[in-house]
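Milestone M4 deliverable, item 7.
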Amino acid sequence: MLKAVGQALFSSGLQNPKFTAEEREGHDYEIRTYHTTKWVSTSLSALQLDAAVNTGFRRLFGYIQGNNQNKVKVEMTAPVTCRVDPGAGPACESQFTVSFYIPEEHQENPPEPSDPEVFVENRKEFTAYVRTYGGFSNETMKRQELLKLLESLQRDGAPHVDEPFYTAGYDSPFKLTNRRNEVWVLKKEEAR
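Output delivered:
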């Protein structure tokens, strides 16, 4: 029930990956376990997050517009995620992986990308701490929200990994109000 309500509230009319949310009150972040799914992705090295997301988005948009082996159009989904593997220092390039969730009707057998820089990614189930914020997001806001999330996780003693981290955007650039953005930090898995 909670999952269905959460996904209905987040719906922007676009399909979203399914997750199970832990019920928690009074926290400034959510804990979500995303189910195993397929995403279409592209990786690149760059100095700036926003520039990398723009380049990655264009490559993936080509894929959903039919630049794939089946020449089929694939529905847009949300969110657009960006996995960030930070570089070794402030003036070093970071590794970015920009991804679109593949819609349900193509999950079983997604069209193969035609662009050699685009690939289908099988994401195993994972748990993330998620901080949501509004507005037109930019690199500075993403970093500020990430730092707030990391401070909250340290405050709560939540087991997490500092990197990689993810940014997620849910809205078209043409949506002017009630915008939704997120930063995700992965939960550290206990050794078994």
